[in-house]
Amino acid sequence: MSAAMDDATTYVTVSIADQIFGIEIGRVREVFTLEKLTTVPLSPPEVAGVLNLRGRIVTAIDMRTRLGLPPCADLSQAMAVGIEHKGEALALIVDRVGDVMPLADAKRETKPVTLDPRWASVAEGVHRLDGGLLLILDVDHALEPSISALAA
């Protein structure tokens, strides 16, 4: 492996409302399709429900709702990215899961000041791609309101 690739971070790419995000691969436990969600009464709006994933109860967070976007018209077409956050198993519901990409750390940029505030609130930086920007998802920041609301 070249020295340039030693200084790279690998991301799992996901799309939310046609915006591409990258989640550091070390945060991703698995990628799966949603089978059966059970709604949770009185839960925050971004909690789409819970699901049983190989005997473990996983809370599903609708990232569109979390970002103040219209919900996905058909959740059966959505994908989920399984992560661990503060000891909790969570599934981030996204529109699509894309490629796994190693990107050079030296090419990472700060968030543009013109970035939509919804995106800026959950992005910790960007990478320029041929077709636009890949926003690096700050998973901890993106989930903090959801987890705080669950604990209330």
From TrEMBL:
Cited PROSITE patterns: CHEW
InterPro entries listed in its UniProt record: CheW, CheW-like_dom_sf, CheW-lke_dom
List residues of the CheW-like domain. Answer: 8-148
- Where does it sit, as one GO cellular component term? cytosol
Q: Which GO terms describe its biological process?
A: chemotaxis; signal transduction
Kindly provide the name given to this protein in its UniProt entry. Answer: Chemotaxis protein CheW
In which organism is this protein found? Methylopila capsulata
